[in-house]
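For reproducibility, we list the full input for the NAP complex.
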Amino acid sequence: MSTALITGASGGIGKAFAQELAARKTNLVLVARSQEKLNQLADELQEKYKIQVEVIAKDLTETNAAIAVLDATKSKGLNIDFLINNAGFGDYGDFAERDGERQVKMVQLNILALVDLTHKFLPLMRQRRSGNIINVSSIAGFQPIPYLSVYAASKAFVLSFSEALWAENRQYGVRILAVCPGPTETDFFTEANFPQSFTGKTSRISTPEEVVRDALIALEKGDATVVSGSLLSKIITNLPRLMPRETLVNFLEKQFKG
Ligand SMILES: NC(=O)c1ccc[n+]([C@@H]2O[C@H](COP(=O)([O-])OP(=O)(O)OC[C@H]3O[C@@H](n4cnc5c(N)ncnc54)[C@H](OP(=O)(O)O)[C@@H]3O)[C@@H](O)[C@H]2O)c1
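The corresponding predicted structure, in tokenized form, follows.
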């Protein structure tokens, strides 16, 4: 039986990954800060699917968080064959006026923790010549977004990094996928302090289960990237190819200005 480690498993897309993989009889390691939520989910999935579920309560913005997670899996005697780097958050607003520490924490979680965890688990997968890594990017990663500047840049990093790793690792039997969801029904928008007026404008919101389904189908096919969501989300990811970058960023500045 294989074992998947999922970051940000206490809610939203991460929790949906946990539920789907549990239903497919995959053992799980659930990582996030909210120990109680993780324990509750672990109990529920163990009971329902008769799988092994471990919980690691960890703030992934802490220095050395990734090595602590690796050590915790080793001490439990677990081999991780499937890593899902999903934990992340956004922050809506004018960069110069937003809390600076929060911007740095966003980079620590969305980028540094993802790179560090990948670097801890990927070599072990290559030694075994099998493994899967899903990195959760976003449609925000395809272009700069004013008032979501750090978030969009962090997701551009995840997309670029994942696609490069996809090409490097195919020959070693390790599949890497960047999943780029459009707007999805989770706590993301509340956590990111999006104005109510803005979230109301969003046309079609996916469920976390739809994102997970699209990601697992794309992984199975061996794709490097999948955009999950409405037709509009798919069109948005192609805009940088269709118009000059300044025109696009000016247009987005108007769209995102609260
Ligand atoms: N929802 C969308 O519209 C959307 C669209 C595109 C991409 N995404 C991406 O999808 C991923 C999942 O987000 P979501 O939509 O499911 O949002 P969510 O419901 O807010 O879930 C975020 C998860 O990340 C965990 N997390 C936050 N800070 C953490 C930290 N410092 N250390 C460890 N875990 C932490 C949270 O758990 P704790 O609070 O318990 O730590 C939670 O489990 C993110 O990378 C997000 O950028 C979301």
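The mean pLDDT is 96. The CA atoms of residues 27 and 51 lie 5 Å apart. Both points were considered when choosing residues for closer inspection.
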